[in-house]
Amino acid sequence: MKKKTELSYNHRVILEEIAKRNFECPIPLENLCQIIKKSDRTVKGLIYDLKTMGICILARRVATQKNKKGYFIPKNETERQIGLASFKKQIKTELEIIEIMQSADLNAHKEFLEV
Fold it and tell me: φ and ψ at 72, to 5 degrees?
């Protein structure tokens, strides 16, 4: 476990808002942005900071008819694994893109731009 760190005001507000929610009703990024009056990039950075402090904040990345997408703190291992599944899928996709880019022809774009 990481050493307890003093939270900034914005970190504390974000953490409090996420902690009020749950897996069934996560808080959308847009709501967090409105609450602290910051951009989505800033809020994502604050959430990243909290994660690096060892706080398990996950996201429901796909909305369903029953559930919105947004951030939550899992209450049990099942919720953790469901939250991690989309994150793992994203990482897998990014690794595939890295492999494609490493072997891509640096002039391939020219073929697509020819009329």
Answer: -155, 165
On whether the CB atoms of residues 39 and 33 are closer than 8 A, the answer is yes
Sign of CA dihedral 40, 11, 36, 87: positive
Query: Global pTM?
Result: 0.80
Q: Which residues does residue 60 pair with via DSSP β-bridges, in sequence order?
A: 70
CA distances from 42 to 14, 59, 67 (A): 11, 16, 25
Q: What is the pLDDT along the chain (115 residues), one digit of tens a residue?
A: 555 678 999 999 999 999 999 998 999 999 999 999 999 999 999 999 999 999 999 998 776 666 688 999 999 999 999 999 988 999 999 999 999 999 999 999 999 998 6
